[in-house]
Amino acid sequence: FPAPGATAPGLTAPASMDAFWMPFTANRQFRRSPRLLAAAEGMYYRDVEGRPILDGTAGLWCCNAGHARPRIVQAIARQAATMDFAPHFQMGSPLPFELAGRLKELAPRPLDHVFFTNSGSESVDTALKIAIAWHRARGEGQRAKLIGREKAYHGVGFGGISVGGLPNNRKWFGPGLPGVDHMRHTLDIARNAFSRGLPPHGVELAEDLERLVQLHDPSTIAAVIVEPISGSAGVILPPPGYLQRLREICDNYGILLVFDEVITGFGRVGAPFAAQRFGVTPDMMTVAKGLTSGCVPMGAVFVSDRVHEAFMQGPEGAIDLFHGYTYSGHPLACAAALATLDTYAEEGLLTRALELEDYWADGLHALRGSSPHIIDIRNYGLIGAIELAPQDGAPGARGYQVLEQAFRKGLLVRTTGDTIALSPPLIVERRHIDDMFSMLGEVLATL
Ligand code: PLP
């Protein structure tokens, strides 16, 4: 951390807060009572007053290696001084090739090809475009429909909000993409409340895909996209066998299956990717966040050999995919990602969630008695969620109260409505877990 009293840009409260329109924020309320983070190291932030804040959310599900890790910091600094930017349209530089090779080794076979983006939203839009283009490249251009799921979050591009299923993220922005439908979600508190790990009930909800396939006719559907575990909607877990059944239905009808692993990727559930922990391999996988441990914006789409191969059939001199971003494979992001992967490997972070899962679940579920308003607790890997009953006439008020009070106490949590979500950096120790749940228990008791 910077020495006490140090001054540098960003360490003190800004003179004015008028101009920055903050994302997904109640801006006027925030300015009246700001929560300003200024520095970060290991498991802790410090706010502009110098108070330590224990990071219960890895930033925003992204800083999986913890904060200010020396290897990553040095790699970014070195790369900025060596080469700041390189174009990757009909031109190349070494690092994205090296990084894609390393990522391929981590991913399940046959996800052997990597397309770089700058965010989860861009990864989702990229995957959806590749899915539609793939069918067209194979002579099935009529397969352009996409199936998402209720309560899904796939970022904020027009593709992502169209397949996404969170009403607030959709209703302000027009009709979205045509030809999109949604399966039912798998949150079923009535049957599964307080179950540890995966919810026992609900595998039959996978049959909703079969219903949609019959409704639209399989020959019109390009892809199905799901988060193996949804995070932003408040942590929704798949019943055992559910993802396997989606895979089977997609295979039966020639539909591509895309896993959005933006929050589950890079060790969150005790394996490099949730696909591996669940034993289900999609045709494409979108990632971001943990790819660089949140240090530099970067996303990626893993693409299976079979899908990639169809784009390699045209004349060698023809561009195979008319898609890409100025910053696809940005050198700083690649340097950060390579150093992040080294850090994950050296410290065993991609499987650490498995070792801590029971301890984490014990502490989390022990919070059940701390407030009568708790209606469910969910956990998997190093993910936790506590669901509160909404206050009469004020949904989200209890969740916000927890966010605010936890911050004042020295704990960063994430809330969506009345669901509190936890996803600490994977370097978390048992003593941090104890501190986290002790602070949270005190806050919940005041509700
Ligand atoms: N997909 C999933 C599953 C996510 O959880 C998120 C972000 O939380 C996104 C996509 C969007 O990522 P980004 O905010 O980097 O665009």
Number of beta strands:
15
Mean model confidence by pLDDT: 97
Alpha carbon gyration radius: 22 Å
Low-pLDDT runs: none
The fraction of residues in strands falls at 15-25%
* Secondary structure: helix percent: 25-40%
Ends distance? 33 Å
Order of neighbouring strands in the sheet with most strands? 4-10-9-8-7-5-6
Figure out the total of helices: 16
Number of domains: 2
Architecture (CATH level 2) name of the largest domain: 3-Layer(aba) Sandwich
Query: Could you say which structural class the secondary elements and strand pairing correspond to?
Result: alpha/beta
CATH C-level name of the largest domain = Alpha Beta
| Small-molecule binders | pyridoxal-5'-phosphate
**What is the name of the CATH topology of the largest domain?**
Aspartate Aminotransferase, domain 2
Largest sheet: 7 strands, mixed
State the shape: globular
Instruction: Specify the CATH homologous superfamily of the largest domain.
Output: Type I PLP-dependent aspartate aminotransferase-like (Major domain)
Protein model, in words:
The protein is α/β, with parallel strands linked by helices. It has two domains: about 25-55 and about 350-445, Aspartate Aminotransferase, domain 1, CATH 3.90.1150.10; about 75-345, Type I PLP-dependent aspartate aminotransferase-like (Major domain) (Aspartate Aminotransferase, domain 2, 3-Layer(aba) Sandwich). It has helices at about 25-30, 60, 70-80, 95-105, 120-135, 160-165, 165-170, 190, 205-215, 240-255, 275-280, 305-310, 330-345, 350-365, 395-410, 430-445; strands at about 35-40, 45, 50-55, 115, 145-150, 180-185, 220-225, 255-260, 285, 300-305, 375-380, 385-390, 410, 415, 420. A seven-stranded mixed sheet has the order 4-10-9-8-7-5-6, with helices on both faces. A hairpin with a 4-residue loop joins strand 2 and strand 3. Helix 4 runs parallel beside helix 13 and helix 14 packs parallel to helix 16 (about 430-445). The longest helix has 18 residues, at about 120-135. The chain is globular, with a radius of gyration of 22 Å. It starts with about 25 loop residues before the first helix and ends with a helix.
